[in-house]
Amino acid sequence: MTTHLFDLSIDNIVVEDGAPPPERIISGDPKFKTWNMEEQPGGLYAGVWESTPGKWRIEYDEWEYCRILSGVSVITGEDGEERRVGPGDSFIIRPGFKGAWEVIETTRKEYVVRL
Description:
There is one protein chain. A hairpin with a 3-residue loop joins strand 3 and strand 4 (44-51). 0% of the residues lie in helices and 61% in strands. The chain is globular. The chain contains no helices and nine strands. By secondary structure, it is mainly β. It has a single domain (16-114), classed as Jelly Rolls. The protein has strands spanning 16-18, 25-28, 32-40, 44-51, 54-59, 63-77, 82-85, 90-93, 98-114.
């Protein structure tokens, strides 16, 4: 039976381990955990993502809404503008954004991505 309403809980979701591609890493040894809870045709994804400390280059082709659950990160645009994000912060990253993501303290976020 398909439900049309469910909680965003990582309980009973298989975690996917990952990391940035080696050529994008600027510093540290960041490791990712992703709990993808929703995937819809047309490229819509929602779930929880976590990273250990490190810094890597990012380039967004997709649109992403994020809400930081725990930890501290700094997102820097290629223009040098920095944004420090922590628990409770919500933001959108639009396609075309380029820069760096630095995890200062292990960071966990909820995300919704639209390709």
